[in-house]
Design a protein that fits this description.
The protein is of the alpha/beta class. It is built from 17 helices and 9 strands. It has a single domain (6-348), classed as TIM Barrel (Alpha-Beta Barrel). The strands form 2 sheets. A 7-stranded parallel beta sheet has the order 1-4-5-6-7-8-9. It starts with 5 loop residues before the first helix and ends with a helix. The protein binds coproporphyrinogen III.
Length: 350
């Protein structure tokens, strides 16, 4: 039994007393406890050792008191499982020494038996659920096919992922074959996460906003739709496609439980475009967490009021930055937890 099911009630569309709160990339380098483990173990050691992954997953629950845990892992483990080498280099980020750019390269990419290839993720989920002991729900996740293709083709992080875009425009048939393999793998991966105990899953399309509206539909949205369809009736799904606000209506039309939005759109406009049914998640500018505290608190309250009472999960508009002071992150969480919806308060006191 869950002691705190606020995020699940919100995702089910129920009226709640306040919005639930968690932060994308909440387990990570801004936490001193995480940095200690980082000195001893490499990134993929931390990811592949269930006891370490579970410990890191719990750190922000203990330190900040967020309403949900998100499994410590990475979207790129799926590329490793599909046959590609992925390294994480200090101060550089992820690197794929042999990126995929031709028919010949694509022969190395296969749809794996995820239960076997990613068994350590499912072990980590089971262990984390045990250690959470019902304290808060656990969020599982996967990268969207388009965002994974970006790393597969460009071979490293980029501001524009031009190589991947030109790959799609010059070799569309091959790009679609790879996107379909990524989709099939992600569906199995997320279903296994649910089987292992994930209460919610989030799809991260971090680079969806690099595509124009038509290309977003062709190279990203149609594959995310298949994943959302395959998860219907399993657990609530949160779809976060950074920068792809132009497609909020088509994201809402998938029937997904929740849509994540970044800070470049006003909450009122996002609500108008997405319609009244879907829950919205976001959208505090991660860099805004560096604001001095009294002003920071005002900005957080302003965001909460802009979303209005209900159908909102308070979060950042993208991952937390590594230089955010822990007490600022805590102020974000506490401000949301102290927020009381005026409407539901009035209703319950009638
Ligand atoms: O949210 C959480 O706390 C759970 C853990 C999580 C990580 N990565 C841990 C991580 C999640 C959900 C991710 C997802 C992820 N990984 C995304 C999608 C979300 C987003 O931020 O857009 C992407 C694009 C990646 C790929 C990736 N992994 C990059 C670009 C980097 C390097 C840049 C960075 O932020 O450090 C990573 C490494 C990574 N993944 C770290 C962590 C804690 C840092 C590793 C370290 O140096 O300790």
């Amino acid at each position: 039994m869950l002691k705190n099911d606020l995020i699940l009630r919100t995702l089910a569309g129920l009226a709640t007393e306040r919005p639930p709160v968690w932060m994308m990339r909440q387990a990570g380098r801004y936490l001193p406890e995480y940095r200690k483990l980082r000195e001893k173990y490499s990134f993929f050691e931390r990811v592949q050792t269930p006891a370490l992954a579970a410990e890191i997953t719990l750190q922000p629950i203990d330190q900040l008191g967020v309403d949900a845990a998100i499994l410590f892992s990475d979207i790129l483990v799926v590329l490793q499982a599909m046959g590609l080498e992925v390294q994480l280099l200090e101060n550089t980020g992820p690197v794929l020494p042999d990126p995929v750019r031709s028919e010949a390269d694509a022969k190395r990419v296969y749809v794996p038996d995820v239960e076997d290839a990613l068994s350590y993720v499912f072990d980590a989920i089971r262990l984390t659920k045990q250690e959470l002991n019902g304290l808060v729900p656990l969020i599982g996740f996967a990268g969207a096919p388009w965002t994974l293709l970006c790393y597969m083709v460009d071979g490293k992080g980029s501001k524009t992922f031009d190589l991947t875009k030109s790959f799609c425009y010059c070799q569309p048939e091959l790009a679609h074959r790879l996107l379909q393999r990524l989709t099939d793998t992600s569906i199995n991966y997320l279903l296994q996460q649910v089987k292992a105990g994930a209460d919610v899953v989030q799809l991260f399309d971090s680079w969806g906003g690099l595509l124009g509206p038509e290309d977003f539909e062709i190279f990203s949205m149609q594959y995310m739709r298949k994943i959302i369809e395959a998860l219907k009736g399993e657990v609530p799904v949160i779809l976060f496609a950074k920068g792809a606000w132009h497609s909020l209506a088509s994201m809402a039309a998938t029937g997904v439980s929740c849509i994540g939005v970044d800070w470049c759109i006003r909450p009122g406009m996002a609500r108008e475009m997405a319609g009244s049914q879907v829950v919205l998640q976001g959208n505090f500018d991660p860099a805004r967490l560096l604001t001095p505290k009294p002003e920071l608190k005002k900005q957080i309250t302003r965001m909460l009021n802009a979303f209005g009472p209900g159908k909102h999960i308070a979060n950042l508009g993208h991952g937390i930055l590594q230089n955010v002071p822990v007490d600022h992150a805590k102020l974000f969480v506490d401000t949301v937890k102290n927020h009381v919806y005026q409407n539901s308060f009035e209703k319950s006191s009638l």
